[in-house]
From TrEMBL:
Record lineage: Eukaryota, Viridiplantae, Streptophyta, Embryophyta, Tracheophyta
Occurrences of domain Reverse transcriptase Ty1/copia-type (ranges): 17-259
Native species: Mikania micrantha (bitter vine)
Pfam families tied to this protein: RVT_2
Name of protein: Reverse transcriptase Ty1/copia-type domain-containing protein
Domain of life: Eukaryota
Amino acid sequence: MQAELDSLNKRKVFGPIVITPKAVKPVGYKWVFVRKQNENNEVIRYKARLVAQGFSQRPGIDYDEIYSPVMDAITFRYLISLAVSKNLEMHLMDVVTAYLYGSLDSDIYMKVPEGFKIPDALSSKPKEMYSIKLQRLLYGLKQSGRMWYNRLSEYLISQGYTNNLICPCVFIRKTTSGYVIIAVYVDDLNIIGTHKEIHEAIVLLKKEFEMKDLGKTKYCLDLQIEHLNNGILVHQSTYTEKLLKRFNMDKANPLSTPMFVRSLNVDNDPFRPCEDNEEVLGPEIPYLSAIGALMYLTNCTRPDISFAVNLLARFSSTPTKRHWNGIKRIFDTFEVQLI
């Protein structure tokens, strides 16, 4: 927590403590604690983050636009294939407290966090009457992601990078000796290109932002990347293990196929729609969450379960126990892969 406060003070995020102006509703705050993990699901760092409660912000008053483009898994897979076919290097950089580099587009006041000392000249009134005027963006604010992307985009374009029109989170710079591609996912920057150009890009980024050099890209977007002599192996074994534990399927008996045998008779088909005499699953069964998690797997590394997941996704509005058993059957095939 102290490291986070020191970082916020270093970036001059907080302005003076003032009496909250009339007609201003200050946003709240919350401490969020995270365990940062690597590609092997090992805890490598414990992190505290002071987050603004942006849900209380009002559109048109506290913010306008909030959309911020990020790299998707399909784009990332294409860049990996490009690195393999062109024999390019892949490097991962992490921006330290990236959102704090963005500029505020409106006046925002935040409630005074615990531990902040009220000046003696203002101590005669209750603490609830005071707030801190933010001078920079803070995590949790609705426009933080957009303002950070704008800040990074403007800097890269000013340094000769071209913003890709189809994928606005991809920046490309060509030189006489090679080229470099920077793919942005919030504060993670994947740098792909020839050796000299990657080194120049790292120097360029460190000159403007505080960065962490994570070396060769090994883990990003829940994709595990293993660099081999004859190519790159991409898999999601760690993500799969997380899913099995999340849905309490890590102790299940393994099966070899992701679907039940279907029948040509619609009345006997286990994947038929909900019938009048069947009970629809309640919110305590995480059917939609399971479908979303499985769809991410199908799009990234597991096309073999695409048909089963697509079929079960059709019943997301009225799932029954039969459909939930179909979800569990897919999870059972993951046990085979892990064993």
